[in-house]
Amino acid sequence: MKAAVFKGPGVITLDEREEPRIEDNEILIQVRAAAICGTDLKIFRGGHYRVGQGDVRVLGHELAGDIAEVGANVPYWKVGQRVCMVPNIGCGHCDMCRRGLNNMCPDYDAFGISIDGGFQQFMVATPAAIYGGNLFEIPDSLDYETASLVEPLACCFNAWKDADVTPEDRVLVLGTGPIAALFLMLSRAYGVRQAIVVGRRATRLREIAAHGATDTVDSSQVDVVDEVMRLTAGRGVDVALTCAPAPELQVQAMAVLARYGRASFFSGLNKGTKVEIDTNKIHYSGLRLMGSTGASIQDYARSMQLVESGQINVKEVLTDRFGMNDAVAAFKHALSGNGLKTLILPQAETV
Ligand SMILES: [Zn+2]
Ligand SMILES: [Zn+2]
């Protein structure tokens, strides 16, 4: 079989590998669709603390496929079932896992990070993933491409639910990538009063606005804080979500929060980056600043429901598809920042 293998910062090669063999408590999955995430690009550029020096890894944690083989001891799951999965697997016994926060487990494993993921034709679902509830059967109404994109929506939903968004809220989305698009789609699905998106490229801003923005702010042309205050008649926004790894977005998010506003720092910053905060504003305005990373199994289940019920069409963010032979080119394309989501179809040689 073919696998796109990460071999250290800047190096991914398309390799011929033995099809994995499963143990009695494992499942073999034939991967049908695997989307490239910002995290994959971050690992490609600079590695990851869970990928050791000299280790090789198949990346890809936003995926969907079919069950090709089921270990002798595995109950319930059958060959031919269509599946997708929550990539972060908790240890099952820490304080976070006991609260259902598998994504916050300090001792986690994750497909495509600490164990091989979806940018290959076949992959192994480990016992901890199977018995931990990470596998989901794909509803009949959803195709593999859609199912693979439930994962990034689940990560957005994690931040979204913590921000307690209501239809009265004015929401600000800072950034114009796929995550920003998913937050706009959540804003539309929840019927928020106003959804403002901020970006620095006019064409990109126009494209992204189609996913549910009521207003756009071109940060290359206007002062973001002034413009957001103008667009909200001086009130500011109730919820601000930062979707790019730029410290100034966090500063802008905090500056435009209305009373009782909530800011969620979805995108991490480069290690060591510090941002000043006005704690008096937090105090007197009753603000909440929060962060989120990954998604719990519950976040994923709820996101799956938003997709299955038709509230959110995650495929709106899918702009580019590549076959397995072009997996390395897919990475290069995703790195270029053109388009939103790039998908690899491991069973297709080329598309
Ligand atoms: Zn991801
Ligand atoms: Zn744990």
Please summarize what this structure is.
It is built from twelve helices and 17 strands.
- Name the CATH class of the largest domain: Alpha Beta
CATH architecture designation of the largest domain: Alpha-Beta Complex
Class by alpha and beta content: alpha/beta
Query: What is the helical fraction, as a range of percent?
Result: 25-40%
CATH superfamily of the largest domain: Medium-chain alcohol dehydrogenases, catalytic domain
Number of helices: 12
Overall form? globular
Poorly predicted tracts of residues? none
User: What is the CA-based Rg, rounded?
Assistant: 20 Å
Describe the structure.
The protein has 351 residues and is α/β, with parallel strands linked by helices. It has 2 domains: 2-148 and 313-345, Medium-chain alcohol dehydrogenases, catalytic domain (Quinone Oxidoreductase, Chain A, domain 1), CATH 3.90.180.10; 156-291, NAD(P)-binding Rossmann-like Domain (Rossmann fold). Helices cover 29% and strands 25% of the residues. The chain contains 12 helices and 17 strands. α5 (150-162) crosses α6 and α5 (150-162) crosses α11. The longest helix has 13 residues, at 150-162. The relative contact order is 0.15. The model has no long low-confidence stretch (mean pLDDT 96). It binds zinc ion (ZN) (2 copies).
